[in-house]
Amino acid sequence: MSEVFHNIGILAHVDSGKTTLTEQLLYLTGAIRNVGSVDAGTTATDSLSVEKQRGISVRTATACAVWKGVTINIIDTPGHIDFAGEVERAISALDYAVIIVSAVEGVRAHTENILKLLDVANLPRIVFVNKTDRTGSDTSRVITELEGISAHAHLVLSEVENEGTENTKVKTIDEDAFRVCATQALADICDEAADAFLNDEALPTDRAETLVREAISSCSLTPVVFGSAKYSIGVKELADVLVRYMPDSKRRETEDLCGIVFKIEHDKTLGKVSHIRLFGGEIANRDEVELFSPEEKLTVQTDAVELEEKPPVKEKVSQIKKFCGAKSTDVGIIRSGDVAAVCGLPSAKTGHFIGSLAVSESARLVNPFLRVRVTPSDSDPLKIPALAAALGELSDEEPYIDAKWENGQQEITISTTGKIQLEVLGNLLKERYNLSADFSPPTVIYKETPSGKGFAKARYTMPKPCWAVVEFLFEPMPRGYGVSYHGRLPSNQCFYRYQSHIRTSFNSCLEQGLYGWEVTDFKCTLVGGEHHTIHTHPLDFFVCTPMAFMNGLSEIGSTILEPLLKIRVTAPEELSGKVFSEIIKMGGEYDTPVIRSSIATMEAIVPVATSMNFPERLATLASGKAVLSQSFYGYRECRDGAEHINPRRGVNPLDRSKWILWARGAYQSEG
User: Rounded distance, CA 651 to CA 665, Å?
Assistant: First the structure.
């Protein structure tokens, strides 16, 4: 009989109790002997010193437990928005998510974003309503909030006694109650249940269980259970529901060898460690596997010459381990449906596929909108290459850091989502690499887009031997569109392999536009181009394409786009006037507040540039009585009238002579 795997992610807003619940599940199943404490820094899955010091998770951690014959691979994720990228990557490896919601605070903004992300990823979920022992616990309100956010039907599978007290108890609903509740919850999504409900009947137990499993797996039903992870109340009931109703790994199984790297770590002894979820096949020690990097740059890639396929990277597995936090055991093999850590893949990066490309929906939970300059603390220029290498390695673990450095530059830049992430990076640089770094005050990451419709062209026919001509048509598209590439020329006009070179070079051009920002939200069509059968060198189109790209932006013009945040402030009604005054100062757009029991909830869209210090200002004016949550909203045309310029890395193709020399390796940029 084959082993049954459940790969689950514990997801929630910060301080909802994710790590505590993980600890209790591990203790319940016998995976650990003692229950650790988040406050004391003794939990199994918080192994970094900064996690122990701050009492929060900053990196995804894996652990393995067995309950009633089912192997449960638990992925504990950070709850702070600064580390939301960890949640994104974990979702790609899951069979389903366990969402934790506080019975006191209710559904927070970050949890709401996670639920929407799960909808996009078509991933089942179960909700654990935590902290039912706390004063102010209101499970009915939580259920109402969940129903207002998600289109799923919700099936409550447990009940609470003495809610909001230290004597709270949780028990699973009995069989008769289950039949009635399941019939009612399924009535809107299942004809069989609807017929029973309309006839004032309840489904038979076995049939109700089958239909509940099917509805959960198809992402139309969400089960809900209650408890208090801190006191292990409702944890056993949760574990029972997981193995009884939630889908196993076969839901995402493939026939061929296929896996995804959802986490990268660097170990002093083991080197690069790739945490993998395997969807099909198996991998053993000494096996050679192929690595694939999915193309994410363009939103549409149709009616154009395909990019030249690069041969997949093949690397040999040296060790396979199962982790429980920082502790690991050698297993030697990973089978379909399982999660394990693979050593010996130096080229692996987060998001890479192994064996073959998996087809799955991808979605973004975070968009880094701040950029920071990083320099050695002692200003020693000789330490810059080592610092750049260390940040490059950390970018393998967290791609959103996106460390950038050109050889010869005196500073490195990284992307960040907040101050806590910078604190963690500083800690990792010191502990792992013995490097001390200073971070500049963050600056906003703007983007740019062509201001209108127009042509972008360049001719590169001198000095010989060379011959490349490129002409694009740029067309602006709506905000959030991304970039699409189109156009296929006759092969006798421009060889297909050269058209593939143009596409590859075009992708690189998107990183820096007229003002040095990423270029987005436009459609590019290759409308002209030519080669020469004698004079064209294979690299000529890599020289010509950036010149055409920048010539086009220079002629058409480029519009700066600024990032926006969606903020939600909950505060006493008497403070709403002061809060709205702050929103107006920031240039925000707001809705009418919702007032309930003298508590006002205000939502607004504000520019990142004007709201960077808003959390501190709000804490001061509200004396700690306001709760703020914020999430990335999108980009819009910049309205402050300033010319935001990001220093260019390397030579600007608009400086034609220097660019040609630099692209041909005959000129060194001064950085």
Answer: 12
